[in-house]
Amino acid sequence: MTTPPSGHRQNGPDWWRQAAVYQIYPRSFADSDGDGLGDIPGVTSRLPYLSELGIDAVWLSPFYPSALADGGYDVADYRNVDPRLGTLEDFDAMVAEAHRFGIKVIVDIVPNHTSEDHEWFQAALRAAPGSPERERYIFREGKGENGELPPADWQSAFGGPAWHRLPDGWWYLHIFAPEQPDLNWDNPEVRADFRKTLRFWSDRGVDGFRIDVANALVKDLSDPLRDMGNRTYREQMESIEDGTHPFLDRDEVHEIYREWREVFNEYDPPRVGVAEAYVQNHRLVLYARPEGLGQAFNFEYLKTGWSATELRSVVDVSLRTAQEAGASATWVLSNHDVIRHTSRFALPDDADHEAWLLSGGTEPRADTERGLRRARAATLLELALPGSAYMYQGEELGLPEAAGIAEEDLQDPVWERSSHTRKGRDGCRVPLPWTRGGTSFGFGGDPWLPQPADFGAQSVEAQEGEEGSTLELYREALRLRHKLVGTDESLRWISSAETEEAGLLHFVRPDGWHCVTNFSTEAAPLPDGEVLLSSGPLGTGGQLPGETTVWLRTADPAAG
Ligand code: GLC
User: Fold this and answer.
1) How far is the CA of 403 from the centre of ligand 1 (A)?
2) pLDDT of 559 strictly over 60
3) Ligand 1 in reach of 212 Cβ (< 6 A)
4) DSSP strand pairing (530-534 vs 524-525)
5) Residue 40: CB partners within 8 Å, gap ≥ 6?
């Protein structure tokens, strides 16, 4: 058995402020029983790997019972483990083992909607209109002469109307897939039940929660429902951003999180929350406040192209936003909802990602070497920034998007709901390659999503101990980061508008820890200092090659 490292990770109530958090998509991580679906014992079996990687916490995407209408984000029972993924005892064993390694555990909470299989929704379907069972969801009569039109023109995030009609003529709201009916958060019973769920997992030792679509819970249900105009979901989402939108980011949602904060604070250390909320920064602050969830994802880095000037302003704005909230900043390059960043960086900045996926990843051509080079540089930059870095399983292997999944193998509801115009998110959810060869490259059984034929070359086995591999880069970066990160969350820019224009971004953290990224393709002079790590080989004669990040240390505190 691998011996746990001796307490190099942060403890105490502020452990999350600058944590390196590793997102596990459980069904694609490691399959211990060979049924083709990753599971909880699979996670446990790989904790030594995660410990060696050097992360501080894992965040597990949903592992609850689910019909998988939306990759597990359709939860049938919030206080249980999907039997295909294990048992509650397996979960407890996983948490205990993670803690033994000094790794914290964050779980995903999906409060906006349940699965249609949830006992509440099943009861609602059997119950009469107007019954208490139906009051847990959002049922309405339709418009039109015979109620044949949806109650409002609200759109679903996955495409099409956000309302579904039942055989009895009533409609129910689903901001996501029809298999994901939205809960009615005006109902105290719903609120009480989620507080129970938070305590259920906190009592089992879970350290925190990632809150799925944290901005969508509360709706304006006053009659008549307000129409949004003939627009797509995105247009509807962006049309009102002041807290009065009929179904997104309403001010009242923060009452819920104040109640959750009380629950979090019942524990020692307090449980932590991180909000997934696609809202403007001035609204994001409200979710990230200490009296709210405490932290919120910042997706700006992920949306920024390969540009020193753009990234500089994103970093400034993100740090300001976090500071205003009293939270630490968060950084994300990849997750289970977006094209892996190795592939994003391999495409021209103006590439249409949906079209690229539809072409099977052939049009436009991806420059994979460049993508990986930039991805590695972006990671070192991310890990030097103040705040928490949320990393997604497989990015430590530099995995690209599996863009060639055949249409008949696609699982994401986005594909059907968008009438085959968007392929969806399966390409970043393909089961991980652990070994060079063998069944499913060491993942387990016949994988639930097909893996690319050349996956073995990028496996853990192929990269472990290999000098210059992406896995070894992550390990070294995380090891150094633990030593270099203090409690001071400040940075000071060394680069100027002029040097940034030329592609050089340079900042220094306390204690003379410098991070310099060369966004251009031309080599630039390497600033003075002891080289700690670089994302690619450094040129001879003090050069920083293009598309490369270097960490340096200067002894002179005045210089730092
Ligand atoms: C979040 C999840 C996404 C899911 C959606 C609905 O955005 O990250 O995967 O489809 O919520 O639950």
Assistant:
1) 20
2) no
3) yes
4) unpaired
5) 26, 63, 81, 85, 86, 87, 90, 91, 94
Number of neighbouring beta carbons within 10 Å of residue 348:
13
- Asked if pLDDT for residue 380 goes beyond 80, the answer is yes
Residue 255 has a CB neighbour count (10 Å cut-off) of 12
**Closest residue by Cα to residue 274 from 185, 208, 323:** 208
What are the tens digits of pLDDT across the range 312-335? 999 999 999 999 999 999 999 999
Going by C-beta distance under 8 Å and a sequence separation of 6 or more, which residues neighbour residue 255? none
- Place 557 in a pLDDT band, splitting at 50, 70 and 90: low
62-109: pLDDT as tens digits: 999 999 999 999 999 999 999 999 999 999 999 999 999 999 999 999
Query: pLDDT at position 9, please?
Result: 61
**Which atom of ligand 1 is the closest one to the Cα of 110?**
12
Q: Which of 61, 68, 73, 422 maximizes ligand 1 atoms within 8 Å of its Cβ, making it the mutation to test the pocket?
A: 73
Amino acid in the structure at residue 430: V
8 A C-beta contact, residue 181 and residue 110: no
pLDDT digits (tens, 9 = 90+) for 162-215: 999 999 999 999 999 999 999 999 999 999 999 999 999 999 999 999 999 999
**546 vs 540: CA distance, rounded Å:** 13
Q: Residue 195's Cα: distance from chain center in Å?
A: 23
Question: In angstroms, rounded to a whole number, what is the distance separating the alpha carbons of residues 194 and 206?
Answer: 15
Cα–Cα distances in angstroms (integers) from residue 151 to residues 143, 169, 180, 302, 541, in the given order: 5, 11, 18, 36, 69
Pair of tokens at residue 39:
């599971």
* CA-to-CA separations, 158 to 236, 355, 416, in angstroms, rounded: 13, 17, 9
3-state DSSP call for residue 93?
A: helix
d(CA 317, CA 333): 17
Element (H, E) at 322: helix 308-325
Residues in the chain: 560
Ligand 1 centroid to residue 74 C-alpha, Å? 9
Alpha-carbon distance values, 39 to 34, 178, 363 (Å): 10, 26, 35
Asked if residues 384 and 319 have their Cβ atoms less than 8 Å apart, the reply is no
CA dist 137 → 154, 161, 171, 358 (Å): 16, 17, 11, 35
